[in-house]
Fold this protein.
Amino acid sequence: MAGNESDKAPDESEADALRARLEGLSSALDARRPPPPAESGPSGGDRKESGGALAAGMRAASELVAGVLVGGFIGWQLDKWLGTRPWLLILFFGLGVAGAFWNLIRTALLTKGK
Amino acid sequence: MDPIHQFNISKLIPLQVFGRDISFTNSSAYMVVAVLIVALLMIVFVNPRAMVPGRLQSLAEIIYEFIANMVREAAGESGMKFFPLVFSLFMFILICNFVGLIPYTFTVTSHIIITITLALIVFATVIIAGFATNGLHFLHLFVPSGVPKAVLPVVVAIEIISFLSRPVSQSIRLFANMLAGHITLKVFGGFVVMLLGAGGWAAISPLPFLMTVCLMALEMLVAFLQAYVFAILTCMYLNDALHPGH
């Protein structure tokens, strides 16, 4: 579109410019890479804007369910094994609930702290 | 019309080895499809290695950068040695979820046996990596510092239960979301058909149809989010294994 007199030269210089730009960009990227971990810590980035709340909610719900299930299962199996029905089930169910909430609190603190 | 019918496992090639049923099922077939799609995307489309990537190559590069940044942020630079694991898990779950959204296909990740297997791979990796990099110091994960001696046994028990609940929560979340989403889609789709076949009631059949369209959009978000959450939790668990005692 510029003109006919420089048919080939722009092509090459364009490629060179592009290459130089790419190198500049990747070095700029490398330079920027270290800071984020130092600033935001080891919790998720800010890239989860849109679905972040939905994801966090689903995480919380499944963590609650899983803690209770695992605690209850351990108690149930120990009861079967030791013949102490139903005391260990009650104990480990409680521990499972506590573990689930402990997980939730930890996740919430991590999210707030970043 | 049965909303559960879509989750049926059917044997395509029956196989018996040492009395065990290892038939090639429709689930296996869709796993192969997912792996082929991932391979197509990550190997074939990237093959030109163009300086200025085309659309599909830049898609592959964007996904790579996305996961690489996620691993770096959540598990630190030393977590990058687990990048292949995280990336494979993410891609497999993502593609399985998206393939499952196409009508008449099978959703691999809607079966808990698949998701618990994936979660147990992560669980085993975390334990092995934890002991390999930190030795017995890895057990400090279960003993938080600054806890009075009197309540220490209770706290340790809670920590162990919460550690054991990780694969359960990871697998339940993925499978339950896919199962529930697909059942909801099917039920609302069924409403459209039922209303269309009910004479005058056909007039309101666009309503559930609209709902299905909206749910489809939501399911696309969920399909991505579930893969993302699975991957980021894998990174966080690996972070615990590599740097215990925070």
